[in-house]
Amino acid sequence: MLQVSLYRYNPETDQEPWTQEVEFDSGGKDLMVLDVMEQIKAQDPTLAFRRSCREGVCGSDGVNINGKNGLACITALSETVRDNKLVIRPLPGLPVVRDLVVDMSMFYDQYEKVEPYLQNSSAPPAIERLQSPEERAKLDGLYECILCACCSTSCPSFWWNPDRFIGPAGLLQSYRFLADSRDTATEQRLSKLDDPYSVFRCHGIQNCVGVCPKGLNPTKAIGHIRNLLLERAI
Amino acid sequence: MGSIRTISFDGVIVGGGGAGMRAALQLAQSGFKTAVITKVFPTRSHTVSAQGGITCAIASDDPNDDWRWHMYDTVKGSDYIGDQDAIEYMCSVGPEAVYELEHMGMPFSRTEEGRIYQRPFGGQSKNFGEGGQAARTCAAADRTGHALLHTLYQGNMKNNTVFFNEWYATDIVKNADGAVVGVIAICMETGETVYVKSRATVFATGGAGRIYASTTNAHINTGDGVGMSLRAGFPVQDIEMWQFHPTGIHGAGVLVTEGCRGEGGYLINKDGERFMERYAPNAKDLAGRDVVARSMVKEILEGRGCGPDGDHVLLKLDHLGEDVLLSRLPGICELSETFAHVDPTKEPVPVVPTCHYMMGGIPTNVNGQALTLDAQGNDQIIPGFYAVGEVACVSVHGANRLGGNSLLDLVVFGRASGLFIENALRDGIVMRDASDSDIEQGMSRLDKLNNSTGGENVAGLKKELQNIMQNHFGVFRNAEFMQQGIEKLAELRSRIDNAELSDKSQAYNTARIEALELHNLFEVAEATAITAEERKESRGAHARDDYQERDDENWLCHSLYSPGDKQVAKRAVNFEPKTVDTFAPKARVY
Fold it and tell me: Does domain A105-233 have CATH number 3.40.190.150?
């Protein structure tokens, strides 16, 4: 039997968070963590968590699994369970709304701050704007972000300054537009990032890289932004 | 019941997927007070899972491509019950809508010329079926839905659209004239229930694939829009038409894009035979989805399935080479590893037809205005009510949707409804306010659930419902089996109506949401079952053992299911496009 520990907190009924211990029979199957959560919820409907696509593309079910942030729907028991233990907690560093559901406003606010939309000062042509395959390839590894917050909520710098440090997810998207040959707002974008906190609170700890369920590398993108900021300062 | 808070908007969009956000963008740009109510943060909507692309004649792959060829393919794909005026509108306006997405920043894959990359998809042809396979599906690798959805969210952010994220609409509010004047909605975080008043209510609530046990659809695809609409007494159209996608990963149900076959992949049976050559000698693996899905089921039923239980076939991709797979189909490589433990660059992927798309839905015209029939059987517009995207049946997909046409449907009709509502608001929309009792009526289901005691567990009932649909209303159907299914559903109705919500707490109570979703799933399932039994022919995705032929004499029409008497009426298909000649029905061969 798998020993599942779940973080529980209902603000209406609980004075403080508590841990629910559940003995779970996986029937010998290598289930995904989300399957375990769904089956427990079928017995105890009070358990709250987010989920949608169940295939790792919508980013709803980021949770902390045995100490590491990840998506419950694409984390197989075989990858994470050691000594028969599965500990599921909410993403760290954000306020808990209930059980495994966190308040993601601070995360989304930082995303919005980088103006994550294409800005181009010229009128669009009658067809698409042309972009070479090489120019387009610069967006690979950037545009695939699913906003699950696994990276930012594993980042000590974000834990300390969630209001002022953009965090790895936001900065990855910032660079996605800086790197886009169709975007003409590079200077404005960089000027908005040019302060001691927005970018430079990244200390290269690379927790973000280790947890990204899509295999993206925010630290590398942050490095590119730093270089652009430094070049601009000279 | 005490009085609840009212919040008012010019336009309210229920659903934050592709269709909803495209409509919202149009209205936000118009300056009217607009809000999107969405039960998940917008980028968690199911549009995000679309993979292969958005089909549209932008003439990148073939400079001579023509939207009329796309129209021909779509009419044929629909097995001739797609409305030709709507298909004409979608295919002709499509290029403009796709260029808008690109201008908004959507990261399409590119050709050497710098144009948008297009790949071949099923059911596509050049020159009205005479010129061979076309490549008309515009793609962002195999993550086109993700790219599209995030781009639309970003576009809405730029235009300051108001989002009510993680708010759940429960029911329609109608005024004394039968007009739709908003919805009742719950803020999931606090549990507060409000009346959201609006002069234009747009349903963009997506599909309901979760009525089946095996589906490519997200957990959230529970048919909320259809459920609400049926409870308000409005009809649904062609709801028996469910698409089973040929390539869901065996066991997991996760989608593998048709783009795999577009890029040159093909299906094999246990003998390693490329069996689609027998069923569709010309188009082979790129025949219509309904044709491919049925061929796969036949292979399995005739003992040529793969695996120890012979219950699936294989999708062969390794011959495409690692370069093509990793550049064009990187997401598929990821999903295959995760859910089938297979590396597609080396081994084939086990696949099986899986419930994927609801062709039917709320009948609308090309402006997104929802329709019903009057006593004389004429179309009648329901004031204040609009539907776009998968929940709508405009109808561009008829009895079978072509791959890549759902994303086009979303943006074209999301945009069209936004444009129409903008003009209507400018001209002035006058509707009577909802009375207290109108609002109470909209609250009645929620009130009942909140006071429920004793009933059965929601998760168990949901499973039972999904198994009935899976077993009785699958790829092949017949009267006896469907009638048994209908009886089982009739028995299930009262049990679901009386399901218990034991947890009455307010803060982020997902048990409440799931109970409400179950009601919607049931409404969709029952309408599907009754209508499927009624349509006594085989057409598109609706394949019957006992009526194997298409019957144009009796069934070249839409079905229209009315919730009150549970009767199925017929509604005429539009055969009058404005700028091209009618495509007359002919035998559908690939």
Answer: no
